[in-house]
Hints:
The structure is a single chain. The protein has about 140 residues and is an alpha+beta fold. It has one domain (about 1-125). The protein has helices at about 1-30, 100-130; strands at about 30-45, 45-55, 60-65, 80-85, 90-95. Strands 3-2-1-4-5 form a 5-stranded antiparallel sheet. α1 packs antiparallel against α2 (about 100-130).
Amino acid sequence: MKYRLFLLTGVILFAISLYKLKQSVDFINRSERAIGTVTSLHEIDGAYSPVFTVKTKDNAQVIYHHASATNPSSWDIGEEAMFLYDPGDPRSVAMMSYFWLFNWAILFMGIAIPLIILGAGYYMIRPVIQMPQKA
Length: 135
């Protein structure tokens, strides 16, 4: 029974992963590039998270709070990074890096594949396990 659950959970997570991958690719296709500059460092429990000011093509400024924090800070004030944003919604800013664009797709796929292998592998080997033994 648990192998069916592994297989079902793996297939569902795989489907969610493909959906998140499609969302990310669609965002990349419709987005424009912009440069963001670190304007301050936000301290969270002794770790520092950069706060970027991203300037869009129409000279609007969007504030982006980066999700990761480190101690010591991995960013200095004045450093620049590349960002992507949707021209229809400039607040939808994402840092242009592989992990920050595809993080949920990677996570769900990383969990789904082992579950699918375990669940499907059990069904493939079950006939061999249940063969009658010759004395």
